[in-house]
């Protein structure tokens, strides 16, 4: 149905990585690579959830948060990778309008929840290192549930706002999304409506979620490092740092990638430059924090965590 110069969109077409249309061998190289990464991510995060659920030694606040982090990683990876893999091997790279809405909603909700869960885990480590005597009281079951619930609520609010405002626009610049999934910037690039409010919401909401969670993490680790340096025992310092090393590694990788994408996309002041930078350069960052990082997280926490390694040894001996 046509209205003026705009057409009601019933489906979108995902351009993917661009090069896959120019070079036929592209799909044969990258499809197996991404397939292995995606399967590893799903197996690793699912395994982490089951391991924490079944091992009695891992029933602590730290692993409660880690279990939800694995769940969130599993959800937002599952929202984008099946369609991406399918588009490597099929000619018709379409996605229905409703499918695009759901993909953006699920992805945005869980990736935002991921940020807040990492901040909650930093608070947990801060209390464990800086106030160990009151740790069981401060990080009670109720407090942990509230922190996790708050993470999901913030993710739901962020996703609902962006999805609602994005798909209320009129699209008259075609239906080909220059990305491998339905992200906000590449969809806005197709709109013939004014997207000023959308760009403003993108800046404000992404900026708030990044800044607020980063401030919590920075505050927590400044106090953690200060407390560790004040310890007289070398063994105590080593033990305290080892409990935070895995989380700090995951935080550095996740926020480093997100901050680079967000800050660089706003190095140019024009609205159009912001959108197109997010579209083109955001593809690389999206692959990294949408696919690669969820794969790395189970490896980081399993290889650098003594309790997880011991639990894995028990499972290995039990079944093999």
From TrEMBL:
<feature type="transmembrane region" description="Helical">
    <location>
        <begin position="25"/>
        <end position="51"/>
    </location>
</feature>
<dbReference type="GO" id="GO:0004930">
    <property type="term" value="F:G protein-coupled receptor activity"/>
</dbReference>
<keyword id="KW-0472">Membrane</keyword>
<keyword id="KW-0297">G-protein coupled receptor</keyword>
<keyword id="KW-0552">Olfaction</keyword>
<dbReference type="InterPro" id="IPR017452">
    <property type="entry name" value="GPCR_Rhodpsn_7TM"/>
</dbReference>
<feature type="transmembrane region" description="Helical">
    <location>
        <begin position="241"/>
        <end position="262"/>
    </location>
</feature>
<keyword id="KW-0807">Transducer</keyword>
<feature type="domain" description="G-protein coupled receptors family 1 profile">
    <location>
        <begin position="44"/>
        <end position="301"/>
    </location>
</feature>
<dbReference type="Pfam" id="PF13853">
    <property type="entry name" value="7tm_4"/>
</dbReference>
<feature type="transmembrane region" description="Helical">
    <location>
        <begin position="143"/>
        <end position="161"/>
    </location>
</feature>
<feature type="transmembrane region" description="Helical">
    <location>
        <begin position="101"/>
        <end position="123"/>
    </location>
</feature>
<dbReference type="InterPro" id="IPR000725">
    <property type="entry name" value="Olfact_rcpt"/>
</dbReference>
<keyword id="KW-0675">Receptor</keyword>
<protein>
    <recommendedName>
        <fullName>Olfactory receptor</fullName>
    </recommendedName>
</protein>
<comment type="similarity">
    <text>Belongs to the G-protein coupled receptor 1 family.</text>
</comment>
<dbReference type="GO" id="GO:0004984">
    <property type="term" value="F:olfactory receptor activity"/>
</dbReference>
<keyword id="KW-0325">Glycoprotein</keyword>
<feature type="transmembrane region" description="Helical">
    <location>
        <begin position="274"/>
        <end position="296"/>
    </location>
</feature>
<keyword id="KW-1003">Cell membrane</keyword>
<keyword id="KW-1133">Transmembrane helix</keyword>
<feature type="transmembrane region" description="Helical">
    <location>
        <begin position="199"/>
        <end position="229"/>
    </location>
</feature>
<keyword id="KW-0716">Sensory transduction</keyword>
<dbReference type="GO" id="GO:0005886">
    <property type="term" value="C:plasma membrane"/>
</dbReference>
<keyword id="KW-0812">Transmembrane</keyword>
<comment type="function">
    <text>Putative odorant or sperm cell receptor.</text>
</comment>
<dbReference type="InterPro" id="IPR000276">
    <property type="entry name" value="GPCR_Rhodpsn"/>
</dbReference>
